[in-house]
Task: structure prediction
Amino acid sequence: MKPVLSRLLRSLQRNVLAGLITIGPLFVTWLVFSWVWSNLAKAGLPLAKLLDPALPREVLDHQGFEPVLAVLLTLAMLYVVGLITSMVVGRQLFNLFEAVLERLPFVAKVYTSVRQLLDTMMAKKDAGQRVVLVDFPAPGQKCIGFLTRTLTDSTTGQPLAAVLLPNAINPTSAILQILPVDRVTETDLTMEQAMSMLMTGGAVAPDTLRFTAPVNASLSRP
Result:
């Protein structure tokens, strides 16, 4: 009985692990999609409520119609805002709006920080944004980070790097580290590859990674 039981347990373990490997990426994708969908629906719900009186009752009674309408309205609003700000007049109005925000004490700090972070995350690699590795949480253990800018130590003149370290699975939460530039390893990862690794816990990753810094390599200022 013991050999049979042992084979059954090994088969069970192997199949459960195979199931986790198959379902894991799908589950993470579903979580991300659900989060994006729910936030788009929440943003567009007030607009959908305004349109309720103009729509037939039989349409409104359909379950799920209002969230879909809210998402479509949110996407339409984002498209219109993007289209307007891409024009000269729209860009001037947006700059005026930002200037007003920057005069508000608390709002200015939050808005400016978020705007700089988004600009860095969306920037092309040749525009200064770089994916790096730093020793965290212990020497020899590398963590993926995003080099946001370089600084200079006012005491020693040593170049420093500001690196944002997002959490895996939930990269919206992160910590900021300031460390010497020579302790930062620049990788050959693109932003898309790094975000895929973070969102999937490393399940989706390139076959090769620059883990060790080349000899005499140094980061230049972005």
User: Anything to note?
Assistant: The radius of gyration is 24 Å. The chain is about 50% helix and 15% strand. Helices lie at 2-51, 57-60, 65-85, 88-101, 105-122, 191-199.
